[in-house]
Design a protein that fits this description.
The chain is built from 14 helices and twelve strands. By secondary structure, it is of the alpha/beta class. Helix 8 (217-239) packs antiparallel against helix 9 (244-265), helix 11 (278-290) runs parallel beside helix 12 and helix 12 packs across helix 13.
Length: 346
């Protein structure tokens, strides 16, 4: 299936198989449902494509599984992440590792996909001398933003600043379980250079997971964060029992605010990211009908429970990103005096 090409698809990357590149080694930092799904794709590709080290390591926060042993041992013996991605077979060349420094040893391509609340300690560890390979590159599949007073930062920017390596961003209409079960979907990768486009395309692209690289790291990263705020609103609509008309209005207004916010505060980004690519409108639709933020927001209305309670009861240890992002976005708009420009976010 040929990718859908627009004028903003700056890169139609040549396969890494066809380029004179050194052997690449992939490491995945994060083992939640989305991290495991991405690690599965990367491991399958590493086993089949030239130019990749066969083994893909995945960082797992070690814990004891009652009656079974340590989580890493369970994953490596059963080739299944029973906690976050049950009933999905994982490739034998995907290896769960509990120590972060061991996961990234000699890795040239590092996938970061931890809840954004945990990113700071991860970066502290990775920034220590000798931990990362000197030629490493990173990609962020983390949904969220960092707000400090009247300043806002994307996670790829923070990763680049802290680690001193180029960082891309991955986002799209990608429900983890559907991706892991090889249901067809697309994703968008915002890249800083053609080399990054070629490498990450080779890591993730497959017949059932089509990758479209574009030169808009900030746009892809911001769309992945802000769509979770709109998904909360969609969940409120569902919880109050309103119908499709109301939900469609919320999504239209939300998409406009997502694009306007990104262009206002990250002017080098492109509005086409939101209208033409999976990271924009497609991701918003998927999350607003089937994501965890929508699910918890609906339950918030119907049960009166706090989001902290609902996260514990409904998400099986996963983190609810939209609530934190909504609060951070509001604080940022308040600090900039721009609340009136974004009534839905406010």
């Amino acid at each position: 299936m040929a990718p859908y090409v627009t004028e903003f698809d700056l890169y139609e990357p040549q396969s890494a198989d066809d380029r004179d590149l050194p052997t690449q080694k992939v490491a995945v930092i994060g083992s939640g449902s989305w991290g495991t799904a991405l690690a599965r794709i990367a491991a399958l590709n590493a086993a089949e494509k030239k130019g990749f080290d066969h083994e893909v390591r995945m960082w797992v926060r070690e814990r004891e599984i009652p009656g079974q042993g340590l989580l890493t041992e369970v994953i490596n013996s059963t080739h299944e992440n029973h906690r976050y991605l049950p009933d999905v077979s994982l490739p034998h060349n995907l290896v769960a590792v509990p120590e972060l420094k061991d996961v990234v040893k000699d890795a040239t391509l590092i996938v970061l996909v931890v809840p954004h609340q945990f990113l700071t300690p991860v970066l502290e560890e990775l920034s220590k001398p000798g931990v990362l390979a000197p030629n490493a590159r990173a990609i962020s599949a983390i949904k969220g933003v960092e707000v400090v007073g009247a300043e806002i930062y994307t996670f790829p920017w923070l990763i680049e600043k802290k680690l001193g390596i180029p960082c891309s961003a991955l986002g799209g209409a990608n429900i983890a379980m559907e991706v892991a079960q090889s249901e067809f979907c697309e994703t968008t990768i915002g890249v800083p250079s053609p080399d990054d486009a070629a490498l990450w395309h080779a890591v993730f692209d497959s017949p059932m997971f089509r990758v479209h690289p574009i030169e808009d790291v900030a746009g892809v990263s911001l769309s992945g964060a802000l769509k979770n705020v709109v998904a909360l609103a969609a969940g409120f609509v569902d919880g109050m029992g309103y119908g499709g008309n109301t939900k469609a209005a919320i999504l239209r207004i939300g998409l406009l605010e997502m694009a306007a916010f990104t262009k206002e505060f990250f002017p080098s980004s492109s509005s086409l990211t939101f209208s033409h690519h999976s990271a924009g409108v497609a991701d918003l639709i998927t999350t607003s009908f089937g994501g965890r933020n929508r699910k918890c927001a609906e339950a918030f209305i119907k049960t009166g429970k706090t989001f902290a309670q609902l996260e514990h009861e409904l998400l099986n240890g996963q983190k609810l990103q939209g609530v934190v992002t909504a609060e951070e976005t509001f604080r940022f708009l308040q600090a900039r005096g721009r609340e009136e420009g974004y009534p839905l976010f406010t």
